Amino acid sequence: MKDIYIERTVKTPEVKFNAESGEFLIQGISIPENTVEFYHNIIYWLTEYSASAQERTVLNLRLEYFNTSTSVVLLNIFKMLSEIKNSKVVINWFYEDDDVEMEEVGKDYQKMLNVEFNLVGVEAMG
After folding, report:
1. Is 14 within 8 Å of 26 (Cβ atoms)?
2. Of 9, 11, 85, 120, which is the most exposed, with the fewest CB atoms less than 10 Å away?
């Protein structure tokens, strides 16, 4: 299975999904013109990955800002991950210590999901 790497732009996040290690990263800003189109290949890739997932799957989210349509796609990604069989799924939600709104969004997702969801405060996202 081929890994995913999407370079960060002003409106889209950097995406690194490694099938062999089971480690995934989404970081930056997510306000794409067409959110469904941007995340389509990632969703498809996750469907394939789910069939032969690693024993441990870790998604690290380091988002500085995202729009409403991205929040819907993120929830879909989280639900897909939570349904993977035979894999310990961990989601790490990074937020800047002084960004109360991002921390609250993380807490909301944490309440909705049935996987290990860690809230990780950091000094800066850089």
Report:
1. yes
2. 85
